[in-house]
């Protein structure tokens, strides 16, 4: 089985397909796994079954470790462009020109390829390794720093709230005259004296003497331009989303206006052998959260198993009936004794 997308839905599909004794491959566009969880690594997750409040980065590590249980093949840095079919095999073509052959396909491309909208300012790219950020990975780095945040949506304001207890100073700039984030979050920032500059945008990044980091920024507030010193710049201007995936006409599954794959049940698409899971599938009462991805993964893998082996059981036996787990349990249980 081939899983397209290595986010939560794809990762759990890989684990569960191992439980069903299926040979599995994940193809992921990014050079890393985890999908959208990588956007909110600093968040504490409260709503995942069986988990006490957990840091998203730890949750992601656990999810990846679990997905590796049955040693699936992982192909990173490959974007699946197109799917064709020849006899009983789907042919999955990626942007590297490589073809992957598979009897079943699980589409787990979530919101598509999601990448932050970057600053269109000269030389901005070279500061990305230093003090220009598009998300926060390791909040401690910002302790006692003067931070300029550009953006007025939920992401910008939520990060400001997270940074509030540790930053020395926060300044939020936004190009419009009205912020778009939740009012309660904005109120929190106002109460703590965070400075808001509306109708303001970044026009220039000015580097330090050895040109390794941004020392100052140039801002345009209404029609007035001026410079400001800061330690770090966090840009939250939203994300570009790319959900293109082509199929040869005879095997093109039905998609809705949001490019999601319609499912009538068990995460089956309109094409036998192709399944869709996670944020890219649409059916009545679908839950677009992590817990929803796990349920979809189980349904899709079980459907795929039956597609390949019609006499297989409808779902996997409980953990205690799994021979592979029993073998490993000896090692795990030895640690408890
Ligand atoms: C800011 C934010 C906060 C959130 N907080 C929570 C929360 O607190 N609790 C919760 O339950 N949920 C939360 N969610 C929702 C949760 O992140 C999603 O429901 C979940 O990530 C969906 O997983 P997925 O695998 O379907 O998709 P994604 O996470 O989007 O993963 C899809 C993967 O497919 C890859 N891909 C896409 N196209 C291709 C292609 N053509 N070829 C190869 N690879 C491809 C992408 O690069 C990506 O890695 C949050 C989401 C966001 C954005």
Automatic annotation (TrEMBL):
<keyword id="KW-0274">FAD</keyword>
<comment type="similarity">
    <text>Belongs to the ferredoxin--NADP reductase type 2 family.</text>
</comment>
<comment type="subunit">
    <text>Homodimer.</text>
</comment>
<feature type="binding site">
    <location>
        <position position="320"/>
    </location>
    <ligand>
        <name>FAD</name>
    </ligand>
</feature>
<feature type="binding site">
    <location>
        <position position="40"/>
    </location>
    <ligand>
        <name>FAD</name>
    </ligand>
</feature>
<dbReference type="InterPro" id="IPR023753">
    <property type="entry name" value="FAD/NAD-binding_dom"/>
</dbReference>
<feature type="binding site">
    <location>
        <position position="279"/>
    </location>
    <ligand>
        <name>FAD</name>
    </ligand>
</feature>
<dbReference type="GO" id="GO:0004324">
    <property type="term" value="F:ferredoxin-NADP+ reductase activity"/>
</dbReference>
<feature type="domain" description="FAD/NAD(P)-binding">
    <location>
        <begin position="3"/>
        <end position="286"/>
    </location>
</feature>
<dbReference type="Pfam" id="PF07992">
    <property type="entry name" value="Pyr_redox_2"/>
</dbReference>
<dbReference type="InterPro" id="IPR050097">
    <property type="entry name" value="Ferredoxin-NADP_redctase_2"/>
</dbReference>
<protein>
    <recommendedName>
        <fullName>Ferredoxin--NADP reductase</fullName>
        <ecNumber>1.18.1.2</ecNumber>
    </recommendedName>
</protein>
<keyword id="KW-0521">NADP</keyword>
<dbReference type="GO" id="GO:0050661">
    <property type="term" value="F:NADP binding"/>
</dbReference>
<feature type="binding site">
    <location>
        <position position="36"/>
    </location>
    <ligand>
        <name>FAD</name>
    </ligand>
</feature>
<keyword id="KW-0560">Oxidoreductase</keyword>
<keyword id="KW-0285">Flavoprotein</keyword>
<dbReference type="InterPro" id="IPR022890">
    <property type="entry name" value="Fd--NADP_Rdtase_type_2"/>
</dbReference>
<feature type="binding site">
    <location>
        <position position="28"/>
    </location>
    <ligand>
        <name>FAD</name>
    </ligand>
</feature>
<feature type="binding site">
    <location>
        <position position="80"/>
    </location>
    <ligand>
        <name>FAD</name>
    </ligand>
</feature>
<dbReference type="GO" id="GO:0050660">
    <property type="term" value="F:flavin adenine dinucleotide binding"/>
</dbReference>
<dbReference type="InterPro" id="IPR036188">
    <property type="entry name" value="FAD/NAD-bd_sf"/>
</dbReference>
């Amino acid at each position: 089985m081939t899983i397209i997308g290595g986010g939560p839905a794809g990762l759990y599909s890989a684990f569960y397909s191992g439980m069903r004794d299926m040979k599995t491959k994940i193809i992921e566009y990014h050079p890393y796994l985890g999908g959208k969880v990588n956007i909110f690594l600093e968040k504490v997750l409260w709503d995942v079954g069986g988990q006490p409040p957990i840091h998203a980065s730890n949750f992601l590590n656990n999810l990846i470790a679990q997905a590796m249980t049955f040693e699936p093949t992982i192909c990173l840095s490959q974007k699946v462009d197109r799917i064709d079919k020849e006899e009983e095999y789907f042919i999955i073509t990626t942007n590297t020109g490589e073809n992957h052959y598979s009897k079943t396909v699980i589409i787990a491309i979530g919101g598509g390829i999601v990448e932050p909208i970057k600053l269109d300012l000269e030389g901005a790219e070279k500061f990305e390794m230093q003090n220009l950020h598009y998300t926060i990975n390791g909040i401690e780095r910002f302790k006692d720093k003067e931070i300029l945040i550009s953006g007025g949506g939920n992401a910008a304001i939520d990060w400001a709230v997270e940074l509030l207890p540790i930053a020395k100073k926060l300044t939020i700039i936004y190009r419009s005259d009205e912020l778009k984030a939740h009012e309660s979050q904005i109120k929190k920032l106002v109460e703590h004296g965070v400075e808001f500059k509306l109708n303001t945008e970044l026009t220039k990044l000015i580097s330090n003497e050895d040109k390794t980091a941004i020392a100052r920024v140039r801002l345009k507030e209404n029609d007035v331009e001026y410079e400001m010193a800061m330690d770090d710049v966090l840009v939250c201007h939203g994300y570009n989303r790319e959900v293109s995936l082509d199929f040869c006409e005879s095997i093109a599954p039905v998609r809705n206006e949001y490019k999601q794959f319609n499912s009538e049940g068990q995460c089956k698409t309109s094409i036998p052998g192709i399944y869709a899971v996670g944020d890219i599938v649409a059916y009545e009462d679908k839950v677009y959260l992590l817990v929803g991805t796990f349920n979809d993964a189980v349904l899709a893998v079980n459907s795929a198993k039956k597609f390949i082996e019609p006499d297989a059981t409808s779902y996997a036996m409980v953990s205690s009936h799994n021979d592979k787990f029993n073998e490993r349990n000896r090692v795990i249980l030895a640690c408890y004794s």
